[in-house]
Amino acid sequence: MLDHGVETGYAIKRRVDISTRFFWTASLAQIYPELAALENDGYVVSANEPHGRRPRKRYRLTEKGDAALHEWLRSERIPDIEFRDEGLLRLFFADAMEPEEALDLVKRLRVRAEELDRDFRAEILPLARAGSARFPLIVAREGADYYAWRAAWFREIEAELADELGA
Fold it and tell me: pTM score, two decimals?
């Protein structure tokens, strides 16, 4: 984010919330300690810039940080994907529920999936399209496709379960 011109921890959090949150979330409780560690290791430097009553630090990459970023971007290592979804975890264990309860769970998951699809297309995708960078738009398109697929998948599962129950 620093390489993209985002300079404060709070601004990084805001940018994450409108860009990478669908595949890489970050909280302020993660961002500030990470910035401090990066500064301690010489990858970033900060400057205090008061903003009203609140102290504010602006960060920028050092040459060492820029080199590390580019080394990481070029790395041939493809990391494992970690995917955590409490809704799917509940669905995994839904055999412990009555069939009607399981259907209700799927309905709630479908509604949430449709909300996420709608919100992503209304909020995130237009921001990516309005930007000048190519690859955030490519990643946002993947997100839009994923959310549309997920909503359709839950509709399909809901219909299957409803048919089984004769609902």
Answer: 0.82
